Amino acid sequence: MPAVREESHDIHSDEDVVQIRQMTRRWAVDLGFTLVDQTKIVTAASELARNTLDYGGGGSVDMELVDGAYRGVRLTFTDEGPGIGNIDEALRDGFSTGDGLGLGLGGARRLSSEFAIRSEPGKGTRVTIARWK
Q1: 106 three-class SS
Q2: What is the 3-state secondary structure (H, E, C) of 1-32?
Q3: Beta 59-67 vs 3-11: how paired, if at all?
Q4: Residue 112 Rama label (left phi>0; alpha psi -120 to 50; beta)
Q5: I want to staple 125 with a disulfide (CB 3.0 to 4.6 A). Which of 4, 34, 99, 119 is the partner?
Q6: 10-to-56, 57, 58, 88 alpha-carbon distances in Å
Q7: What is the pLDDT of residue 101?
Q8: Strand bridging mode 114-120 / 59-67
Q9: What is the pLDDT along the chain (133 residues), one digit of tens a residue?
Q10: What is the structure's pLDDT at 102?
Q11: What sign has the CA pseudo-torsion 91, 94, 98, 104?
Q12: How far apart are CA 10 and CA 116, in angstroms?
């Protein structure tokens, strides 16, 4: 599916997380997403940006506005942090290696039309989500 707009942004601070959340909302509004769908993609983006910062030690997001067979927003979060040893466990509600509620990854998956995760201990994590209109 061709991307009609692409941007990449670093995630190294709380301000970056806020910026990604705001940009994701703006793109969803531009696409005509309903308020519910805007909230879903923004919440998922916020969770993954926060995970990238807090657990991955920072990283980046590649943002794509897609217009083809599907129309929507695709976001790919990448870090070079410690990685995830057991992805199935990390996706389970209530699992957290920090002080959180353990809803981030599983919640992001439920809020997205598409979700993919690749992680290798010691090499980092890559999570791609999409929300289609």
Answers
A1: helix
A2: CCEEEEEEEEECCHHHHHHHHHHHHHHHHHCC
A3: antiparallel
A4: beta
A5: 119
A6: 12, 11, 8, 27
A7: 41
A8: unpaired
A9: 667 889 999 999 999 999 999 999 999 999 999 999 999 999 999 999 999 999 999 999 999 999 888 899 999 999 999 998 877 777 776 555 555 444 578 889 999 999 999 999 999 999 999 999 9
A10: 41
A11: positive
A12: 20
75, 128 contact by CB (below 8 A): yes
User: Domains in the chain, ordered, with CATH?
Assistant: 3-132 (3.30.565.10)
Side chain identity at 89, as an amino acid letter? Answer: E
116 vs 70: CA distance, rounded Å: 17
Query: Of 32, 58, 28, nearest to 40 (Cα)?
Result: 28
